[in-house]
Description:
The protein is about 45% helix and about 15% strand. The protein is an alpha/beta fold. The protein has one domain (about 5-270): 2-enoyl-CoA Hydratase, Chain A, domain 1. The strands form two sheets. It has a six-stranded mixed sheet with strand order 1-2-3-4-6-9, sandwiched between helices. It starts with 5 loop residues before the first strand and ends with a helix. Mean pLDDT is about 95; it is low at about 275-280. The site of zinc ion has 4 residues, from helix 10. Zinc ion (ZN) binds near residues 102, 163, 252 and 256.
Amino acid sequence: MTASTILYETPAPQVARLVLNRPDARNAQDTRLLYDLNDAFDRAARDDGVKVIVLAASGPHFSSGHDLREGGAIAEQMAPFETVGTWCGFGCAGAEGRMAREKEIYLGLSERWRNIPKPTIAAVQGKCIAGGLMLAWPCDLIVAADDAQFADNTVAMGVGGVEYFAHPWELGPRKAKELLFTSDWLTAQEARALGMVNQVVPAAELEAFVLALAQKIATKPLFALKLAKEAVNAAEDAQGRVQAMGAAFALHQLAHSHNMQVHGMPVDPAGLQVRGKAKTP
Ligand code: ZN
């Protein structure tokens, strides 16, 4: 058994804290990290003693996004893990196998976490890049350290946005387009002004602030918390969120197929340099 890439902590009664724990890789998401995180979310969701779930990250950065260094065939990458979706077909050639994997571990897992009935809070410090957004956005609340920065640089890599395409709901349509078109950083303060982030606090106070917030929420009746969450989520879904994200996901798969035909890889290699620059602005 490989050690989990996620720490499961109970820092206060009724509060579970899941900590991304690949700091040497800037918490890049390989398949194992995503399934370890899913297991941790399931554990917290199923524990009736837990009311609030915090998602945090060790090290200076929340997450540098998907781990593009993960090699091997898709079927081999997926083989060690028990999948949660039923699309399957990871051994299929071409777009079929790639779409199956991304539908399961990217769109599927992020949507699954978004729909956990209990309140969830993301605590974000440092860089939160592309796939990193797909960990923070599914949480109900986001608290950012004052050094936090957010970016989706996938357009530079020839793709129209990350797989969990929540940008218009998180930022509003106009700023969503700016983020996507430019690959520029969004600061914690800008993200708060747009409503994407709830609170910005000094980096040294992030952990304590989020714990206090979680404890305040945990004093409320869990059933009412679940109902409040369900009602707000239903409002987003009534606006067509699920259908719009499905359309964006299909376009995302088209981009991967196009890049495979033109560049021989699922992303435009020219954009990988932008990605590298983005890590150390
Ligand atoms: Zn993709």
